[in-house]
Write a structure and sequence with these properties.
The protein has 277 residues and is an alpha/beta fold. The chain is built from six helices and 14 strands.
Amino acid sequence: MIALRRASVLAADAASVSGGRASRGLTGGLAVASAARVGWNSPVSPEPLPAAELDALGSALREVAVAAGVRATRATVLLPDYAGAVLVLDRERGVDLAEHARFRLAASLDAAVADLVARVAPAPGGRLLAIALRRDTLVSYQAAIAAAGLASAAISFTAFAALAALPAASAPVTVDLVLGDAAGTLFGWNGGRLASARCRLRDPGADDAPRWHAEIRRTAALLGAEPGRVRVLGPGAARLGAALVGLGLQVRVGLPRLQVDVPGVAGEDLLWPAALA
């Protein structure tokens, strides 16, 4: 594949840090050149990381970066979606969308508007996805990233990466499930336009297929229809996708056009290369 762009990505989550080096080709495909994963444990919360967790995250980020040959000057770090709150917005002239997102999501994060920061990214179909998080929470992640020697890395979110990599939904009603270690974000699409976004916790140590099946159908029902197609991304996507097929859903698993030639790495469960799309 002739590479149009090469970059390194690290994804911090509740029970792991994963990442590596990948490239995007001239025809839009993604190829993974290296990958690594290190386990760690973090509270699943929008609150700032405790001091002890900062050191642990910094160490995990550094270990993955070394193992996967990540270049700090060309790296992106993806934060977990549960670190903030999500909101779908329309484009409006004369409206500061980041400010609007902070105002709308302040109650969800139990914080004052002035204490939040927000990022906004385009979604296929013309709408936008906003993520707001507490300023002190962002500062805590930045401290861990800097401690890992990655202070120059760009910071984004798994939800933004997934939206950038997924083509616009073709079915009248589509539901995407972007999985993380401890939570998942559901996107509802109506006529190719992003209609809703919700983050929900996973059920640890249990078969969570019935719960996600119910959440997927609930997401589609809010749009007035059955889910025509379901797309599942992230760790555990292959297993969960097979279970959802058994429950009667039409499921597509994994990032489209992703090539992984790293021994022992399941491409169907990778999400972090989406940050290059």
